[in-house]
Design goal:
The complex is a heterooctamer, with two copies of chain A (about 350 residues), two copies of chain B (about 160 residues), two copies of chain C (about 250 residues) and two copies of chain D (about 70 residues). By secondary structure, chain B is α/β, with parallel strands linked by helices. Chain B has six helices and five strands. Helices cover about 40% and strands about 20% of the residues of chain B. In chain B, helix 2 links the parallel strand 3 and strand 4. The mean pLDDT of chain C is about 95. Classes of the chains: A alpha/beta (about 350), B alpha/beta (about 160), C alpha/beta (about 250), D alpha+beta (about 70). Chains in contact: A-B, A-C, A-E, A-F, B-C, B-D, C-D, C-E, C-F, E-F, E-G, E-H, F-H, G-H. At the A-F interface, helix 4, helix 5, helix 6, helix 9 and helix 12 of A face helix 4, helix 5, helix 6, helix 9 and helix 12 of F. Bound molecules: thiamine diphosphate (TPP) (2 copies) and iron/sulfur cluster (4 copies).
């Protein structure tokens, strides 16, 4: 399969199918309706199952149940719908069920608007549900990345038995561009997952209990320590970050998702104008690539964080550079997206200030 | 929207980088649903179109809203059967096209898009004439072969108008 | 001979705005009837509406009362929260079939069962309008939608839910009627039902729900008048009009 | 037969034809004009037949029509 | 003369554990019946249970099948997710009245309406057991609970919901029966209903629900046998036993 | 009213009533059932309304509706129930409705356990719902503080038209101790709030729309900027933090809630042993008192963060001291609570290390 | 009358008396002993009357009773 | 639990700082539901009781579970009608009380708690005898005056046992 021009949502859906996902449970919400729509048609063709859940609460609990079979299951939604999944996601994390959740983010809070946004960063990376847990969150910056990450999401979910979120801003969902969807590499369940439910017979009567309830606090603490150790493992292995022209950069733009690609154009343009500017772009935003940010410290003089929200990644950026570099923020919210020229303008301002302070540009 | 997609398919066919991005609202009809297409020979950063080489407006609200986003020296093409335009800028080239009427004459009311595609291809270098024709065949021909002929005719009519500017 | 005004825009209909509804969508008719009722009962300035998430999300742009926006499906809970504090004010929810019968099933069953003294206008157009035509709980068997491309199959998606009948099986609610907005002959009944649902609330009778069979020309893919015929020929046989509960 | 008259708030009409179908006297028709929103508004093609019954207005989703009747 | 075993612990009842239920709570009887059914139909090792949030949250400690824990009220959705992937395995949910009829109302109505091929054991004890005796949707009028200190008042809290009747008003579900666990005379019917609800699933007949009237001696504040009498005298008149739907 | 011995949950409920709250919507969940139980009785007596919602989703939407009247409304729940309120809380923030939510935290994730925990810190302070918003979060360290903060919560909610959470670990909810509940100071709505719903008549036909939907992205961005400005105002005015013996402390323990009071005993004991140790305890955890932490920088040599979770406040502590002080963590989770002797032990270890490094203890 | 016999797994008994009430022959009674869990387990006070009908076992919520019948 | 609350009320009455903290489980009966009471003359930090001066166990599971938490030199008091104890420690003082039986004799089966309270007050200095009597009157007397007499009697019986140790 070569490159084809596809709409983001449909490419994501097809990528999931190629990754071996045969079970989709979801509820419509703009701007990701084409995912369930596509699935309702395609899964029937490939012998999978599409269930239109009665709500996002139900959908998230369906993936909980579905995920316990060991098969690749997913749901997708957009911001308000994701909020309704909070409780189930906490359970899924606690019960160690592998699932994939796609969030095509729209602008909030509340009903907000249906235009693109990155304002679910905090929720996805930090506090989506109650209790001590984290999930893995991937943030694609182009349609091709979204497709590739869709497949990776399933691999990670099953490797670590953890919920994985593909966090796409609305642009990724709605854009059409050329993508290549690598043909299926989804694992084939020739024999049942050792931990999965429904295989008691195959296992000679040994049963499986998938639970997060531990009334004895010492047991629960031990369980939580296990989850914590797993998360440390993930922090060690699974961060991912792109650095573009950062080696000699005086100013580095930090951005994720669609803003990353926009910032890249700004960087190219500014380089052409002679500015020493670079880009750092986390591809996995949870666990966050703190080390990559820390490595900017000796050379870089200023970080400009650009986001499509009111600055939610800022605290992670600051943490990454350990408050040893000045970090400023430029953002648009509510469905507005920072444009190339706005970013360039902001950078030029920073350079002007730096040279006023006696820099060498 | 379809017009934009046709251009996008064509550009991809020609090996260019292309993005198509719709702006959607709750208004399912008669509103300002629109899309932005970016064609480039290098990877595309922002798929948002702040200022455009060519703006095509199918109705009055779109015309009113997007007139301002035409670049200096760019084209504003509109369906003069659905919208009226009182010039406010003299730095752009304006092409009124009585597209609904032409489509009616051809006997395919839905061909308005294709007529305007013809105009766009003629006045710009987004994609070549050949590519455009092939894309029409491929994308519109396969879905509704019965309309292929009238669509090609519509394209010709539009192209004629475009070339005559 | 003097000219008498037979019909004019209701006062509660906000002047100067153009609704965002598709041409011929019966949401507009139902809105208008609500406005007329507010005018006739002279209750506009003591009434608060709860806007749903659905095509009617922007209804506060057209109906001139106080409004609260509710999350998708939760209008009955929002109304409960309000009405329990302001029993002397009137409150109504306006909900689509996705809003009320899918995601909001829990809330409507329980508000009905507590017999909250509220008025519910339930617009059943057998599809998700705002999100572009996916299956609703009320989508008819065989009906094609963007998520039932081969038509709704009861094996995979169950049977269409008859909400009025379901809620009428509860002991508590006061008044439940199904009417239609499709045909001129239906409109008198529609208006009467809406008026009654508000009157009941004024008289503290408890939960009143009017289910209005409605069209979605756009997502059904039909011209508006054809959609009305489709409703009559397909929806009414499955969703019979009538009063399912009336504690009068 | 009473004598009636309709006034159309053209700018709000969406050309849906619901009123055209509703009118028992076939008074109304979609016009050739285009309004600001891009729709062809309805018009009273046979105003003389209007009986002022109000059916059109009752069915209009956009409250476009005002109806009068001579008494 | 040889001695024959008339009754012994079912094999599916996990040996060596002491249930956490209060003395005389009928949860235990229902558990035992499920175990017996699993044994008789020889389906223990192809069955997965969904544990609710409620007193039965720890039921996997007693019944020897695979188990998934569901969030409060969501067992039908969890079961749906599972069963659609493993149609050849059996799955059952076990839910209290708070779990199923309050927070989980949306999920049970829709699972029933999709006629998911699952078995639901619905334990109606007219109160919230695990959390210490608050009002449930099924609490009887006048019944005192910790959140209805003067007894349930229909004006403030509505009428008790008859779940079986409500769900039976839907077109889709296959089998719905209400039985009781209170008296020796009820136990045969209880067992039969549970067996049938599993059999239906094995035969792919769709959604089956058994509502079991159950006691909560602790939160009702009665001795176990008195609680059984109370059930017979107060619950059964309002919640009549019987078959409400059967597609056989 | 003098001091009385009361159970935490009941004291909190009575404090709410004294603060003028007459409307409670809630759903039972351990360990806070006594709140709805108390309310169901007391509100009836004082002419208020108790509604047992069918779920936490419903309860949170009831306070949304109730809050639009301008009256003092509240709900209470515990961790999984709070997750179910995520969507509504985002709406409430976006729609600027004043409400108070009590969370008597239990150990998670998932069903977890019912014993005390602080593992909803992330959720409460950072990502509970979708979109750009924050809520105010108060974290009492004793029953008296809980009572006082309950009243403050209503004041803040109405002052800023924002959701306010009282985040109590289960200890605060379940403990009995002596408290004094100041008699009612709840405002009396003699005239309707200017912004509230249901007063169109009183306002001569001027109406109110309470919404968060803005389909025009520029409008939504403007709305979000308004919310942001309000939040900055709150950050300026409403942080609150207790410092105990920090002036000369070499090691400062950071802790919130119940752990704070436990740590205080540890500090007293250690001081008696001659250790220069202090305690910093945020009373308001959102907005976080970063400045108070920053002020520790010159003197203090080490921060020991102690929590009843896996370290959720840690990143805020680090941010507060700007990564310029070593911060270590000691925590218990799953319903376990760090004890006085564990904390002392940990401190002694730190002092031993510091003196090894050549400190002056 | 058939002859029956009951075996009580005393350590699981919670002294709820459900079986006592269920027995048509009034065979069972709550004993004076205390089991490990602090309950007074049931015992067959009149074992000779047992007809092995199994009613007690069918009603026991804790699966405490095993019932035998001579054939 | 009630026993603990009575002590707490008493301590507060005497102007001491006091906390009462239950440990709750899903087991509504027969389990190890218990509470910890801390009485102190200075503000109380941790309300958790890791090692206790006095442990009162009403049934076997509680006895098994909490035996270990008695401080060296502390007291372990248990209802010998509901639990058996085989000594494993020789550094604590153990007081078996046949409380159920005594309660039965008094004719108030629920007075087990009050009997044990009597024992506790007698052997410890948590609160004074007078305070204890007053608290019983106040807290138990008001709710169930008909039992007041038997409760006072129960307290006396317990106190006797305590004093005789
Ligand atoms: C939590 C949540 N889920 C989903 C949506 C997306 N959504 C918006 S409207 C709608 C359904 C609309 O259908 P209906 O209620 O039938 O009303 P109609 O548009 O047909 O009038 C949905 C699913 C949302 N906004 N929030
Ligand atoms: C989201 C959520 N809300 C509330 C609770 C608390 N809770 C646990 S069990 C229960 C209800 C128990 O009643 P029921 O379902 O009738 O079962 P029973 O205990 O009577 O068997 C509740 C409200 C919870 N665990 N999760
Ligand atoms: S989408 Fe359907 S329901 Fe919505 S406005 Fe258009 S026609 Fe009406
Ligand atoms: S008033 Fe009656 S007769 Fe006149 S145009 Fe309208 S429908 Fe026709
Ligand atoms: S088997 Fe029958 S007769 Fe024997 S003890 Fe049990 S119930 Fe009584
Ligand atoms: S029914 Fe079972 S638990 Fe109850 S007394 Fe009888 S044997 Fe014991």
């Amino acid at each position: 399969m070569g490159k084809t021009l596809m709409k983001g949502t449909e490419a994501i859906a097809e990528a999931a199918i190629q990754a071996g996902c045969r079970y989709f449970y979801g509820y419509p919400i703009t701007p990701q309706n084409e995912i369930p729509e596509y699935m309702s048609k395609r899964l029937f063709e490939v012998g999978g199952v599409y269930v239109q859940a009665e709500s996002e609460v139900a959908a998230s609990n369906m993936i909980l149940g579905g995920g316990t079979t060991g098969e690749r299951v997913m749901t997708s939604s957009s911001s308000p719908g994701i909020s309704l999944m909070s409780e189930a996601i906490s359970y899924i994390a606690g019960q160690e069920v592998p699932v994939v959740v796609v969030n095509v983010v729209r602008a909030g809070p509340g009903l907000g608007g249906i235009l693109p946004s990155q304002s679910d960063y905090n929720q996805a990376t930090c506090g989506i549900g109650h209790g001590d847990f984290n999930m893995i969150v991937l943030a694609p910056g182009s349609l091709q990345e979204a497709v590739d990450m869709m497949q990776k999401s399933f691999d990670l979910a099953q490797k670590y038995r953890i919920p994985v979120m593909l966090l796409c801003d609305g642009v990724i969902g709605q854009i059409m561009e050329a993508v290549e969807i690598p043909p299926g590499h989804g694992k084939n369940l020739s024999e049942p997952e050792k931990w999965a439910c429904g295989y008691m017979k195959e296992r000679g009567g040994k049963r499986t209990i998938i639970r997060s309830l531990f009334l004895d606090p010492e047991e629960l603490e031990a369980h939580n320590r296990k989850l914590e150790a797993k998360w440390h493992e993930i922090e060690k292995n699974e961060t991912s970050c792109e650095k573009y022209l950062t080696d000699d950069a005086e100013v580095v733009i930090s951005a994720f998702g669609t803003v990353g690609r926009i910032a890249r154009t700004a960087v190219d343009d500014l380089r052409a104008e002679g500015y020493r500017v670079g880009l750092i772009r986390p591809l996995v935003i949870s666990p966050f690539p703190y080390d990559d940010f820390e490595s900017l410290i000796p050379g870089c003089r200023h970080i400009l964080d650009v986001e499509m929200n009111w600055g939610q990644m800022l605290k992670d950026v600051n943490r990454g550079v350990r408050y040893r570099l000045p970090v400023s923020f430029y953002g648009r919210s509510g469905g507005m997206c920072p444009g190339v020229s706005e970013i360039k303008e902001e950078c030029r301002r920073i350079f002007a200030k730096l040279s006023g302070e006696g820099g060498d540009q | 929207m379809v017009l934009g997609q046709l251009v996008a398919y064509g550009a991809m066919k020609e090996g260019k980088f292309v993005t198509w991005l719709p702006s959607y609202g709750p208004e399912m009809r008669g509103g300002t649903a629109n899309c932005g297409v970016t064609v480039s020979s290098r990877p595309i950063g922002s798929p948002f179109v702040a200022s455009a080489d060519v703006v095509v407006a199918l109705n009055q609200p779109s015309l009113d809203k997007y007139e301002a986003s035409v670049k200096t020296g760019g084209f504003l093409i509109y369906n003069s059967d659905m919208a009226k335009y009182t010039p406010t800028r003299d730095d752009i080239r304006v092409i009124p096209v009585n597209a609904s009427q032409i489509a009616g004459n051809i006997g395919n009311e839905k061909a308005v898009n294709v007529i305007l595609l013809g105009v766009v291809i003629a006045i710009s270098d987004l994609i070549s004439d050949d590519t455009a024709r092939e894309i029409i065949k491929q994308k519109l021909g396969s879905r509704k072969p019965e309309f292929l002929e009238s669509n090609m005719k519509a394209y010709e009519e539009g192209r004629k108008i475009g070339l005559s500017v | 001979m003097a000219e008498k005004i037979v019909y004019q825009r209701p006062k509660s209909w906000i002047e100067g705005v153009h609704t965002h509804y598709c041409p011929g969508c019966t949401h507009g008719i139902i809105h208008r009837m609500i406005c007329e009722t507010l005018d006739e009962l002279d209750i506009r300035d003591i009434t608060t509406g709860i806007a749903p998430v659905g095509c009617a999300a922007l209804m506060y742009g057209y109906i001139d009362t106080d409004f609260i926006e509710a999350p998708h499906g939760r209008a009955p809970a929002v109304a409960t929260g309000f009405k329990r504090i302001r029993p002397d004010r009137l409150i109504f929810t306006y909900q689509g079939d996705g809003d009320l019968a899918s995601i909001g099933m829990g809330e409507i069953v329980h508000a009905a069962n507590r017999s909250e003294n509220i008025t519910v206008i339930f617009v059943n157009n057998a599809i998700y309008g705002m999100t572009g035509g996916q299956m609703a709980p009320t989508t008819l068997l065989g009906q094609k939608t963007t998520t039932t491309p081969d038509g709704r199959d009861p094996q995979r998606a169950g049977y269409p839910i008859r909400v009025s009948e379901l809620l009428a099986s509860l002991a508590s609610p006061c008044y439940i009627e199904r009417v239609s907005a499709a045909k001129p002959a239906h409109l008198h009944g529609l208006k009467k039902a809406i008026r009654k649902a508000f009157r009941n609330q004024m008289e503290n009778k408890g939960f009143s729900l009017v289910e209005v069979l409605s069209t979605c020309p756009t997502n059904w893919g039909m011209r508006p008048t054809v959609a009305c015929d489709w409703l009559v020929n397909n929806m009414i046989p499955y969703y019979p009009l009538g009063v399912f509960k009336d504690f009068e | 037969m009473p004598k009636g008259r309709v006034e159309i708030l053209e700018q709000y009409c969406k050309s849906c034809s619901m009123c055209v179908e509703a009118c028992p006297k076939k008074v109304l028709e979609i016009s050739d004009r285009i309004n600001k929103k891009g729709y062809r508004p309805v018009e009273a093609a046979r105003p003389e037949d209007c009986i002022g019954c109000g059916m059109c207005a009752m069915r209009c989703p956009d409250a476009v029509i005002r109806v009068f009747r001579e008494e």
